[in-house]
Amino acid sequence: MSYSHDPQNPSRRRVMKMAGTAALASALPLAASRTVFAQARQLIVSDPGGPYTAAYRRAFYDPFEKATGIKVVSVARDSQPVAQFAAMVQTKNFVWDVTTLTLSADIPYLESKGFLEPIGMKVGDFPGIMPEAVTADWLGVDVYSTVLAYRTDKFQKEAPQTWADFWDVKRFPGRRSLRRSPLDTLEQALLADGVPIDKLYPLDLDRAFKSLDKIKPHINLWWTSGAQAMQAIQSGDVDMMSTWNGRAQAAIDNKAPVKIVWNQGLYSIEGWGIPKGTPRAEFAKQFVRFCGDPARQALITQDLAYGPTNLKAFDAIPKDRAPLLPTAPANLKGMRLPSPQWWAENRTKATERFNAWLLS
After folding, report:
1. Cross-strand pairs, 177
2. Are 142 and 102 in contact (CB under 8 A)?
3. At the top level of its lineage, which domain of life is listed (predicted)?
4. Number of Cα atoms under 13 Å in the Cβ half of residue 136
5. Which of 66, 154, 212, 234 would bridge with 256, disulfide CB 3.0–4.6 Å?
6. DSSP states along 218-265
């Protein structure tokens, strides 16, 4: 609503109206006052939706409501939340108070711009947690991994176990798929060319693209979404691929003859960040810290094939479920986290070169 008169000099009618409104508010019955107070004690949390919402509701939202009396309203966020996150901080128009963010892709940028609400966390606050899952302003709560997956009906005697095997089209013939993104794909190209997994960074882009040149003619599908990747390996449209472990596990759960290779996987950490300046920051900080609890994180794994960041959670995870998760000790030891710092500094350059290479 807009007014034609000066808002700093309201008319007598407006003054009387505001006074009447204040008097009415003071006369509200106690029950109505409690309703207003209850509405104020709520937190709007955004997540990727679908199975994430169900998992987070079970593990975090409902237990937090029960423990604190603060209602958690969940909404689905954009697939890439950083632009919306930044816009909310800059305009102070907060449509949610907490959201999931990925360490390698999102946190370095948001931290460099000062867009994250200070929380003051440290690793020692959460016994058992992976050190890389905690920054001062962000807490990782689950881990997924980009892995090699293959069809067991195609490779019955000898199967690919490394990215060098994936690149070996003579020894392991078959239809192949990689992600249409430089993220993970450049690392996989270097691993295929013999770079040790603990020596990947800084990425040698020239070497990576020379390696990609070798496999490019043999790629049948450059996938762009998790759903597309799952369908490709589940249906048998491809025989081996780079994919997210959760999507490969979904194909396995759907009875497809698919196997995950954890060796040389590249894991990512998802967790909670708060847009700086949200009026419900104190509630949000309570919520973020609450999610570091190992018992809470164990509940995520009932709905998602993602690993907890607090490794004490494995004490409460069924023994037959644990081997399916990225942070199970046997799986984690052969993987690494892509460098958040390298990608923060080089993502634009690497993406432009990758996109141009695909078209060449």
Report:
1. 221, 241
2. no
3. Bacteria
4. 10
5. 234
6. GEEEEE-SHHHHHHHHHHTS-SEEEEEHHHHHHHHHTT--EEEEEEEE
221 and 351 share a domain? yes
Residues 247 and 152 in one domain: yes
- Per mean pLDDT, which range of 27-31, 232-236, 268-272 is the poorest? 27-31
Together in a domain, 325 and 216: no
Instruction: Tell me what pLDDT residue 215 has.
Output: 98
The per-residue DSSP string of 62-113 comes to: HHHHHHH--EEEEEEPPSS-HHHHHHHHHHT--S-SEEEEEHHHHHHHHHHH
The one-letter amino acid code at 352 reads E
Give which of 312, 315, 298, 308 is closest to 331, Cα–Cα.
308
Q: Identify the domain containing residue 320 by its residue range.
A: 42-143+269-333
Kindly state whether residue 11 falls inside one of the protein's structural domains.
Answer: no
Q: List the structure tokens of 127.
A: 């016994």
**Number of neighbouring beta carbons within 10 Å of residue 120:** 9
Residue 105 binned pLDDT confidence (cut-offs 50, 70, 90): confident
More confident residue, 1 or 199: 199
Percent of the chain with pLDDT over 90: 84
Sign (positive/negative) of CA torsion 300, 344, 265, 153? positive
Q: Do both 135 and 155 map to the same domain? A: no
110 and 251: one domain? Answer: no
Asked if the structure places residue 83 within a domain, the reply is: yes
